[in-house]
Here is the input.
Amino acid sequence: MFDPRSMGMAILLTALTAFGPLSTDMYLPSLPAMTRDFGAAVGDVQLTLSLFLVGFAAGQIVYGPLSDRFGRRPALILGVGLYFAASIICVLSGAVEVLIGARFLQGLGAAAGPVLARAVVRDIHSTEKAARMLSYMGSAMALAPLVAPLLGGYLAVWWGWQAIFVALALFGGTLLAALVLRLPETNAHKDPQATRPRHLLGNYIALLGHRVYLGYVLCITCCYAGLFSFISGSSFVFIDFLGVPAQWFGFCFGAVVVGYILGAFGAGRWVPRVGIRRMILLGVVLNLGAGAAQLSLALAGVATVAAVLAPMVVYMVGVGLVIPNAMAGAIGPFPHMAGTASALLGFLQMTLASLVGLAVGQWDDGTQMPMVTATAAMGLGTFGFYVLMVLRRGTAAATPPPPPPGR
Here is the structure.
């Protein structure tokens, strides 16, 4: 078994957080080709992305409380096992409807990775150290969306889109073996009542009634939804609208990921001196400005790769500053229910992202406007929620409520 604070443990946790970006970003270059192969509408094929996120959101609500009651290890093995099986079904899908259903199951399984990796980090680190750990994990994990579109583009060109899901099945199977053989249990505060409906409802009510927790969560939710509007629409904008070859799309996406790496690495390096709140404030300002710039260029009729890409790189620097720090700020005050707090955060984050991705697909007009409008709106939401619900409350508001009755 890995020592909880070892490099091997950090690598395993980072790989678990990569389920989301790998499962969404690797097959982005093949979405236009899948539309043609299945003879389906753009909105139908984008459902394979949005329904993945619906499963990803719903699964987090399940795994968090399960891990608070039974431990992180069995919940992770259950989720990653489901992901592995669903990936094989994706490979064998012969109709878009089957692929949509398999992607939903894949999302249910993948949800265990990030939600429980965050809970494990909280199990073994204090709030500030957790923020640094999550930031460095985010920097390393960014290799997944940096490499995934490049790899996915070439796999799709050489062997077809099914090869992408073969690669995802291999990734899931490898992680499943690592969890079974090397993952120790880190939950030292197992709660036998964590999955009881009344107790679980009390936990959720306590979390939603904590204004600063909710402010952090809404900030994360809007920030990620702005990113997901790009994930959902970028392949159609770059490949179909701007004429970028599918195998080159990964380089465009990689430039955006570099922005995230810079933000996340900077957050890990500077947070001990600057503090979580100032780091997040800088990030939300970048989200607001970049989203506004991207929309303004589109409204002015500037339809170039640079006009879409450059503001998005800046937006992603903000994402790297906001999300790891806001996650630590949200979960840190709740060691007695870290899994539940992480699960509710992830559920809300992925639910809004899936709705935004669905809207971008349904409003597709063959231009960049639906995507950049959604990104700008989410940048505004990120800034507004943070300023109104977190900064104005002061540090005293960060004190958590007591555990709900029944403990």
Remarks:
- The mean pLDDT is 85.
- The longest helix spans residues 211-241.
- The chain has 17 helices and no strands.
